[in-house]
Design goal:
Blueprint (H helix, E strand, L loop, with lengths): L39 E8 L1 H6 L5 E4 L7 E11 L7 H7 L8 E12 L17 E16 L11 H8 L8
Parallel strand pairs: 1-3
Antiparallel strand pairs: 2-5, 3-4, 4-5
Amino acid sequence: MDSAPRGQAPQGQRAPRLTTATAPLTGTGTANDLPEGDWIRGISVQQPHATCILTGAKGIENRPKPWSWRGWMLLHAGRRIDRPALRVPLIARTIRGRELPTGAVIGVARLVDCHQDLEGSEPCAPWAQVGAWHLVLQDVQELPLPVPASGQLGPWKPTEDLLEKVFQQVPAFRP
């Protein structure tokens, strides 16, 4: 048996693709097996910030008001692109070589906390904006293909049709 350095495939074989998900999403069901009721919301985020979240580099999203919702979120890339942000070195490095789809659900994430940094304290993350509320996102799962959809400001309830289209792409997802 050939041995290869960690993260590389033996000669003549292809290395497995690494993903950015922070935790495995397990299960064997289909979208029809998802729970009913009020268990998921959508969050619309402008590009390039939405893609920064997908890479796993940006674990927070800044908002002007606190959110009481906790749980699973569809990550929706809004129709607008924050063009000045494309020139911010931290963002430019994070999105290099990646497409920036707009007007579509591009992933799934779990919102686990919402907080504000204490006045005068260091920001909780390089992505944190002073005075903003920080939505802490974990367990990010990128969709193989963006699903066209309209988003909204604030947390929004996705339609059953949208959930069906999204979770056809991640059949192993279990909330």
